[in-house]
Amino acid sequence: MYFNEPGKLNTEETLIRAFERGHQLGLDEVVVASTTGATAYRALEIFGGFAVAVVTYHCGFREPFQKVMPDATRADLESKGATVISATHALSGVERSLFKKYGGSFPVLLIADTLRLFGQGTKVAVEVSIMAADAGALSGNDVVAIGGSGKGADTALILKPANQSALFDMQIREIVCKPRAL
Fold this sequence. Notes:
This protein is 37% helix and 20% strand. The protein has helices at 11-24, 38-46, 71-79, 93-102, 107-116, 120-134; strands at 2-3, 29-33, 51-56, 83-86, 143-147, 155-160, 171-179. The chain has a seven-stranded mixed sheet, with helices on both faces. β3 (51-56), α3 (71-79) and β4 form a beta-alpha-beta unit.
């Protein structure tokens, strides 16, 4: 399915279609990007029977030493069964800092920009699956990976996850939905 525009207006449809496809394929793991917890809460409601991994921004992403997702939200999501991961972005990390200071091109940033050719949500879905794999939250089996373009969710992939150290072993098996406009 293709949405005409990116953004959070597609969250409900993205989550429902992703669940339906994951269920059809017999999958039982979902990785979802969530900043405030809103998308994560809705994913917990929709993805009954799935292990839900929620990936949020790392501490210091917006302001030094400040968390983006409130501790109370994280604790509540975990009490409802989600695994919440806060980690450095797999497709930028330290390279973003080097780019800001020195300019130039860096391989990981090139990978991120290449994925963005398919939309910001595609890049995010791939990235959060890497972060969840590195955190030990995934089994290594195929997963549903959900990302978005800013707020909410608008992209769902079926993929075989991989750790950062084996990035090119990842396989994007299906695009369940994404925006046509980038």
